[in-house]
Fold these 2 entries.
Entry 1:
Amino acid sequence: MNGEIWVVVERKEDGVRRVCREALGRAAALGGEAVAVVPGGDPDEAAAAVAPYAKRVLAVAHPLLDDGDAETWAAVLAELIAVRRPAAVLGGATARCRGVFARLSARLGCGYAADVTGLDVTPGGRLRAVRPVLGGRAYATLEFRGPTPDLATVRPGAFPAPAAGLAGTVERVTPATGALTARVRFAGRLPLEAGPVDLAEADVIVAGGRGLRGPEGFRLVEDLAAAFGAAVGASRACVDAGWRDHSCQVGKSGRTVSPKLYVALGISGAVHHRMGMDSARTVVAINNDPNAPFFKHADYGIAGDLFELAPALAAEVRKAKGE
Ligand SMILES: Cc1cc2nc3c(=O)[nH]c(=O)nc-3n(C[C@H](O)[C@H](O)[C@H](O)COP(=O)(O)OP(=O)(O)OC[C@H]3O[C@@H](n4cnc5c(N)ncnc54)[C@H](O)[C@@H]3O)c2cc1C
């Protein structure tokens, strides 16, 4: 691809969101010049966190960017894009970047492919994106027309994350947007109920459904998750019943996850749930109904009572890990 491919980088306490590293790796593979663009935060810290994964870093400093408000990020990025004219801009398919990219698309009149799982370049030098449609039952290939840059957000886990090893040059950028104001105020952060492992970045997820019979049933899920070092997910039935916080919900109206291993305990496997986890590499379903729909979509199905099987599985995992 000719020209620069920007990757909008979201940072977290201990570095860079994995999906942003994955997008940087894919951008580098597409040819052109991959540039990490880091809105907000201390520019020196941004440089230290991102430079190992990019040849060039634009650290964009403005106090209103620090809270991650999508509207403010979009305003500043649109201004930078109009001046520097990258060929494409990528980001993670996270709640924040989806908000940012939809706004960029509207502001710049450019095409936007959301939640993509494949990216390459057309003979004409534009992006070609693949994304799941119809609840993951089909894939659509999208090509861009009209004004550039081509905009895409990348599904977590769709591309391998590159190892640290670069030492990107860092350019500090101060946005010219003098009259920038934020319409929302950042009030504070709340810990996610999913536990110490972030659901979006987890390699292993243990998720529970209505088969757990109540909030106390989630102790089994948490114990198995602790044995694996996994994050905890939930079906919507559990969230609607108030057993679990919405931040744990996997599915169409919840989070999209792409772990290496997804263990479903007492979840029927409705299409709305599967839409959030159909790119998991290996799926294990435990259900006492041998006709549960999940069994048709799981790599390993165990027909039995989760109240017996989950503790037994946790014990086996701990034994295998020598704990
Ligand atoms: C617009 C829309 C959006 C939606 N979005 C989502 C979403 O984001 N995420 C989501 O999850 N759902 C979503 N849903 C709801 C979805 O369609 C299902 O209703 C929901 O996923 C069912 O949750 P469940 O599998 O936990 O419950 P159930 O369907 O009640 O399944 C419980 C399962 O537990 C099994 N079970 C019971 N006891 C045991 C036991 N002792 N041992 C083992 N297994 C046992 C049962 O056999 C059953 O299969 C959405 C629906 C709509 C209409």
Entry 2:
Amino acid sequence: MTDIAVIGAGISGLVCAQRLRQAGYSVVVVEKSRGVGGRVATRRLQGTCADHGACYLQPKGELFSKFVDLWQNLQVIKVWTDIVYEFSASGGIAEPANRSPRYIAPEGMSSIAKFFTPGLEILFNQRVITINPTKENTWCLILESNEHLTAKALVVAIPAPQAGDLLTPLGANLLGAEFLKNLHSVEFNPCISVMAGFSANSQPLPYWQALTFNDHTDLAWIGFDSSKRPQSQQPHFVLQSSAGLAEQHLETPDLQPVGNYMLQKAAEDLALPWLENPEWMQIHRWRYAFPRTPLDIACLSANTSLPLVCCGDWCGGNLVAGAMVSGLAAADEIDNQLRHIIPQNLDFLDLLKGFLTNSFTTN
Ligand SMILES: Cc1cc2nc3c(=O)[nH]c(=O)nc-3n(C[C@H](O)[C@H](O)[C@H](O)COP(=O)(O)OP(=O)(O)OC[C@H]3O[C@@H](n4cnc5c(N)ncnc54)[C@H](O)[C@@H]3O)c2cc1C
């Protein structure tokens, strides 16, 4: 039994859980995978790492910009590039009209998520499969392992379609028709990420670090990922598909041919023939990568006597920065419905700063 259960240890879930924990609530986070970060994801491979989810941070909004400053001071992130080149079929590779710094974590983007975890109780490898209200006026979460967790309040910090699968069985009578309508209105685009490493002798290496494909049928983005890593022995890249290509392969069991196809397309378009012959390649399919129709609210609260609030980048949009803002809004909403113990002037950043500085200097 805990005060608050948070489903999902992505950025929104972690930020929400940390804020509630700092205010004095008991909080348990339940995460289906074996690590934190969700779509802020880094894969360790071939003696290096690659960011197959969020590729960089772009400061937006006051809170997020303060975090970016803090992480930069702690040397967790640094500027990677301030130019994301653009490729179009008609114009080839061109410089963008605007430049702005893109920040990355040399140790991998998932290290950013780890900064929200001090003091948090997180159950890993535990997927929530059913949620029920109990006679004792609590929520009961049933996990895949068949363990049960009860909580006075619930935060659902996962992509809207997954939240819909979990919450729809509770019905409109309990959750409110408007709540379910809003939840079901959010659609996501999928994406296929290809991580590929190449011979150390590959030439010519690109002069760009990051490049967006404009109006490309199959490709959306490519990053020279090894240029983020100080100790990299060989060039490696992360290539993201267009939503259209990922839609076509939502159920394709073997994605290796799709990965080869994407590399071949990039090799042709970018005039880097060696890109189609990787020494190694790994592929990840994101079924819910980017919210296509986000809600215009910071979090989505159900009309229940037992507090239940959803959050994530699909509330308000705006990627990692939006997920952070949404997680904070969900914490405040839960607090409003429970005990009102988060003071209006409590500065999340100030409180966390102590943690961040300590955990950074002791590691
Ligand atoms: C390929 C790609 C590139 C991107 N590039 C950028 C970028 O450059 N910059 C940027 O700012 N953003 C980028 N983003 C977007 C960014 O990653 C997201 O906006 C942000 O991470 C969303 O955080 P979240 O907490 O809302 O959700 P998520 O990160 O999706 O977290 C949800 C968590 O819930 C867990 N979960 C789901 N269902 C259950 C369940 N039933 N039980 C338990 N746990 C569950 C998941 O495992 C996951 O850990 C990118 C995303 C992708 C996929």
